[in-house]
Fold this protein.
Amino acid sequence: MDASPDPTPALLERWHRGDEAALSALLELHLAWLRAQAEKRMGDFLKARGNVDDYVQDAVLDFLRDAPRFQVRDGGQFRALLARVLENTLRDRNDWFRAKRRDLARDHKLPTDSVLPLDPALQRSTTPSREVGRAEIRDWVRLGLEMLDGEDRKILLAREYEDRSFVEIGAELGMSANAVRMRWVRALERLAKVMQTMRNGDVPDEPAG
């Protein structure tokens, strides 16, 4: 990033208001950096199954379009967040999770004026209603799920959003019901820590898992 004023927060705010040109400008500003990160992380297995632009598009465009809206302190924080999403995309290449993210985006939308602030200096309530408070917590959870490893995400989504039993989840993952239950408890603890970290203005360096 150069010494000129960082346009990232303003562009992200414009994108939240529906300005497609702002999304294009965000990508132009950060895409080369993200592509370089993907190049470093991709081994031969991934390169044989897709090019770097495919993976970056999955990580960035899908996330920005389907995840809860958020505001950042600066371009560095924006890159740190997208780098974590990119890392998970490369780790699991999981079409299942991408579909679930879209389902959550359709089923659990925040009011149009509500944005999750990833900088304590930006944090303020968008509305005093209790209902929106619950919606904001729910969307902090959705954002926190992006920071967890693939198996933790799958267990939490299956249990909390699909209301599936530990037996069912275990059968799918090749685990006993008790093992799934223990993993679910640990995943909830990790998710709580990730959410607190992000509310404090930081982005986890590594997948929580």
User: Anything to note?
Assistant: The longest helix spans residues 177-199. Strands lie at 70-71, 116-117.
